[in-house]
Amino acid sequence: xxxxxxxxxxxxxxxxxxxxxxxxxxxxxxxxxxxxxxxxxxxxxxxxxxxxxxxxxxxxxxxxxxxxxxxxxxxxxxxxxxxxxxxxxxxxxxxxxxxxxxxxxxxxxxxxxxxxxxxxxxxxxxxxxxxxxxxxxxxxxxxxxxxxxxxxxxxxxxxxxxxxxxxxxxxxxxxxxxxxxxxxxxxxxxxxxxxxxxxxxxxxxxxxxxxxxxxxxxxxxxxxxxxxxxxxxxxxxxxxxxxxxxxxxxxxxxxxxxxxxxxxxxxxxxxxxxxxxxxxxxxxxxxxxxxxxxxxxxxxxxxxxxxxxxxxxxxxxxxxxxxxxxxxxxxxxxx
Length: 335
What we know:
Elements: E1 2-6, H1 15-25, E2 31-36, H2 38-45, H3 53-57, E3 59-63, H4 74-80, H5 85-94, E4 100-103, H6 107-117, E5 128-135, E6 138-143, H7 153-171, E7 178-181, H8 192-202, E8 209-213, H9 215-218, E9 225-227, H10 230-256, H11 261-278, E10 286-290, E11 295-299, H12 305-320, H13 323-330
Parallel strand pairs: 1-2, 1-4, 2-3, 4-11, 6-9, 7-8, 7-9
Antiparallel strand pairs: 5-6, 5-10, 10-11
Helix pairs in contact: 1-12, 4-6, 5-6, 7-8, 10-11
């Protein structure tokens, strides 16, 4: 399987993306097209030649002399930088030279490039960026986390369908529980968007809609799929990213002020390790942009090389289980 990897995407690119490419290429079932400035990537990749010759030989560099910064306007950047690493990755998939592409870069630019070069799946109104959130029972899919700041009920309805299909195929949950993020569990709670979306989901046969879910219940694993608009989803995700560090800081401060701190510190380090393992985004690597006509995995901007490797693995899994065809061929059943 051939995966195009945006070498210039992410806060620590290209060093971590190159290392992640080498780690990913060690698997027999994947070859990497590393996309970015050819001379720069050749120079940085050279150090892996002797120690990881097998992986090194499975990486091909595709020249792209432009990069899209996190601070740039997505649509403008993609239009004006046609030779950016993100755009070239999308074109490689569109031209059937790659089976999927992975980027840790500007998520808005990734979606814009995917829509421009790949288009939407038949019947899909808007794509959704998903992510996997840890819960006490395992994990759940959250969609959307930023692709669509302003949504219509029909968008959220389709987010639920696409994420449910992804859950069935890749995560192997036979009947995923789908919930709508709102301010209360009652059907009457919420704004106009959630009330209208609730009505659409509640009368749909074939989707296991369990109703509204409050933010506090997500981590308890009440649902396998949680849907919301991209504005709400992105705020929820960013808050979640900060809460672990805050909890650890408060616990540590309390321990350090205790007269028996030397006794308690080993327990603190155990708690820290447990929490960091549970909430470590690098284990997931990235999540698919559902709804576009090609496999596209969006990774975290702060990704390390392990996260890059796992994002490539997520791309392989999404292609392997033919998620796009499943969404397109089964969408009519829910409409």
